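Risk register update: the risk of archive-format incompatibility is retired. Evidence:
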Amino acid sequence: MNFERPYILILLLALPFIWQFLVKKKNVVKIKFTNVDILTKITDDNKKFDLHKTVSLLTILCLFFLIISAAGPRKGIVSKEETKHVVDIILCLDCSTSMLALDFYPKNRFDVAVQAAKEFVKGRKNDRIGIVVFSGIPILTCPLTTDTETIIRVLNNSRIGMVKLDGTAIGDAIMLALSRMKQESKSKIIILLTDGRNNMGQIDPVTAAKAAQSMGVKIYTIGCGTATGKSLYIIDDPFWGKRQVYLPQDLDEPTLIQIADITNGKYFNVTTKEKMFAVFKEIDKLEKTEIKVKEYKEYKYLYQIFVVLAFICFITRFVIEKILVFRIP
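Archived output:
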């Protein structure tokens, strides 16, 4: 609460002086009585309850509420008008068996990617986000939505092997994501995460990237692992049971770089868990949602409340002074 005319509140400083004046003020009337017993009784009753001070207090309260009312008490009601520049984002996550590599021990590549993606989603509450997982074929597991809880739930349920056909269909995954983009959106991006090279599907990744360019879709590519060397895997051998083996890596970095360049995106290489989270944070900074806020303030005036309180104090004072106080005619 604030006041439209706060300078009037300075009158409150006079109330203590008025109180002192009212309390000390006493009208003394001299009358001759032949029997003072009745006066003694009246004096004893007034000692129990000082009506003079009560009347003075009600007078002060009445003045207090009137001053507050005159100052124009009001309560601000703020209304906002927001203009949001929403970004459409589709996460394309490779869920092929090669993502089982334990580069980010004790988690595999896919689990760490999902963790980083969830943190990314939590910070994009105003954007529409969808999810495509792919291996030999792509599958849309979540269409574009602003429902953060649904997106997180879909990510939690994502796992390696959910697409039965193994392989890496990068081009088809991009085309599926493009088919779900809304044409009216001003900003559209795809975050493509993989650790391999395109070896499945009908559409070449570069051709898909050119289609994305024509639609104004930017693609950020994330490559897990390296183009050479070996990665640690745990395999379930039918004879020897679960055991650790090292298998060669096959990351096609040139193609991922080319996809990013064609669409005016950016390529990131990830070899540690920390870098995975850092990459998603960098993409989050690069693609910020623009929100323009216009704020309007309306006021609800509260002076009526204080006028009513002052009136109640005045009526109570009148009743006590004119009716309850014993007066000698």
